[in-house]
């Protein structure tokens, strides 16, 4: 990946500095600790990297050359938000399907009549590199305004050789040209494409035989994901694919226990996945398995809201000792939204997370879900200078002033993006 433009910044007069120092959090006590420095505080970023985060009285003397000075005016500063689950690159829209769902049709019934992922696959296969790139860039621009500085981006709407590679090449291009850093995930196993209808085992064979080596050779993804679900890809195919991916050096993830409880969380823990995502129907055994593993439990409340489904039991998972993250699941079907303000509102009001837990889930725990915890997710010396300045003096306004974008300025690698 090319190096992004980096800046040097002296951000002073911070009213409340949320550092998230200390690494990923598991359980209620740890997730409630934001490692806050009450102001006045200062954040120093040199050439894109944090060199100091602490009390202003303890801070270094600012350099006069090449340093931008910014008065935070007593407002709250947090690490940049991390959206650890998106289907960012796609063609077409599915606005009619949303109305069908509102009228009572289920997500699976829409898939069975040719809608759902199959509809987007058709549109994505027909889209050019330029069309896919421009489309995705607009979403990234909106995400940057809401304080997102790092995001995962999956393929999975091609499910053939050329389109999957094109999606991943778009992700690489955007990672090189857009301020937001992208974590690339290959998700060819999003569904069984029409060419393999009724033959999911053969399709997994194709991915293992042809796609994984090709994606690895072209260095287009760091991670492999799969939709583990009844009548989509069940345990046998999930285990075969993810073990083959690990043998090639990929990290692995799973869409797990979204629609039917089939033990996806348990399998994700067994396979050492970075994260198990969705988890609306997770079992008590699955919660125990995640709590005793390094696998992050990633909840996607915007999708549950869109599908009018139950929310993942985040409160139960946190109290059991899980490392919980939250993410948008931006996609054209089940969740056409990447709204961080709505995500925070749903997490705190409907998933019963505290605002502190939600911030941990959107920063350092989300970083762990994409294997970036050593680089982003907290404001510590040596890590990326990614931060947000809020319009208010306390992080608590994020849940209190719900549904509103409270980000005044996004800072990416020391560069300012003010709104």
Describe the protein:
- This protein is an alpha/beta fold and 419 residues long.
- The chain has two domains: 9-79 and 378-418, Urease, subunit C, domain 1 (Roll); 82-369, Metal-dependent hydrolases (TIM Barrel), CATH 3.20.20.
- Helix content is 36%, strand content 21%.
- The protein has helices at residues 27-31, 95-102, 107-112, 117-126, 129-145, 161-177, 200-218, 235-247, 264-270, 284-291, 301-307, 314-319, 340-349, 355-362, 364-369, 397-400; strands spanning 9-18, 36-46, 49-55, 68-71, 76-79, 81-83, 148-154, 181-189, 223-226, 251-252, 254-256, 275-278, 296-299, 324-326, 387-390, 407-412, 415-418.
- The strands form three sheets. Strands 1, 2, 3, 4, 5, 15, 16 and 17 form an eight-stranded mixed sheet that branches.
- The radius of gyration is 21 Å and the shape is globular.
- The model has no long low-confidence stretch (mean pLDDT 96).
- Helix 5 (129-145) packs across helix 6, helix 7 packs parallel to helix 8 and helix 9 packs parallel to helix 10.
- Counting helices, strands and paired strands, the structural category is alpha/beta
Percentage of residues assigned to helices: 25-40%
The major β-sheet equals:
8 strands, mixed
Shape label: globular
Mean pLDDT: 96
CATH architecture of the largest domain: Alpha-Beta Barrel
Low-confidence stretches: none
Question: Proportion of β residues?
Answer: 15-25%
Any idea of the CATH topology of the largest domain?
TIM Barrel
CATH superfamily of the largest domain: Metal-dependent hydrolases
Tell me the number of strands. Answer: 17
Number of helices: 16
Distance between the termini: 28 Å
Radius of gyration: 21 Å
CATH domain class of the largest domain = Alpha Beta
Count of the domains: 2
């Amino acid at each position: 990946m090319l190096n992004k433009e980096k800046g040097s910044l002296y951000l002073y007069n911070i009213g409340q500095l949320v550092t998230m120092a200390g690494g990923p959090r598991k359980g209620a006590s740890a997730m409630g600790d934001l490692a806050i420095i009450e102001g006045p505080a200062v954040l120093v970023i040199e050439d894109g990297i944090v060199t100091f985060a602490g009390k202003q009285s303890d801070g270094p003397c600012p350099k006069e050359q090449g340093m931008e000075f910014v008065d935070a005016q007593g407002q709250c500063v947090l690490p940049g938000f991390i959206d650890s689950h998106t289907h960012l690159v796609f063609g077409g829209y599915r606005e009619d399907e949303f109305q069908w769902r509102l009228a009572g049709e289920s997500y699976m019934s829409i898939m069975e009549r040719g809608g759902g992922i199959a509809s987007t696959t058709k549109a994505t296969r027909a889209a050019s590199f330029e069309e896919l790139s421009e489309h995705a860039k607009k979403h990234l621009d909106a995400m940057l305004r809401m304080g997102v500085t790092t995001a995962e981006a999956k393929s999975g709407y091609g499910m053939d050789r050329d389109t999957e590679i094109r999606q991943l090449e778009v992700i690489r291009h955007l990672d090189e040209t857009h301020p937001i850093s992208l974590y690339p995930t290959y998700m060819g196993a999003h569904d069984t494409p029409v060419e393999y209808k009724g033959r999911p085992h053969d399709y997994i064979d194709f991915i293992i035989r042809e796609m994984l080596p090709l994606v690895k050779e072209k260095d287009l993804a760091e991670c492999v994901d799969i939709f583990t679900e009844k009548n989509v890809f069940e345990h046998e195919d999930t285990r075969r694919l993810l073990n083959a991916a690990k043998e090639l050096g990929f990290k692995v993830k799973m869409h797990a226990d979204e629609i039917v409880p089939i033990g996806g969380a348990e399998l994700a823990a067994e396979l050492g996945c970075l994260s198990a995502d969705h988890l609306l129907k997770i079992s008590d055994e699955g919660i125990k398995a995640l709590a005793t593993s390094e696998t992050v439990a990633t909840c996607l409340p915007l999708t549950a809201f869109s599908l009018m489904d139950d929310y993942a039991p985040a409160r139960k998972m946190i109290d059991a000792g899980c490392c919980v993250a939250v993410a948008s699941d931006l996609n054209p079907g089940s969740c056409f939204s990447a709204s961080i303000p709505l995500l925070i509102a749903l997490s705190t009001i409907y998933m019963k997370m505290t605002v502190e837990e939600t911030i941990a889930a959107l920063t350092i725990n989300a970083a762990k879900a994409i294997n970036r915890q050593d680089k982003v997710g907290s404001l510590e010396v040596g890590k990326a200078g990614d931060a947000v300045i809020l319009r208010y003096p306390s992080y608590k306004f994020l849940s209190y002033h719900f549904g509103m974008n409270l980000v005044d300025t996004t800072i990416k690698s020391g560069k300012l993006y003010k709104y």
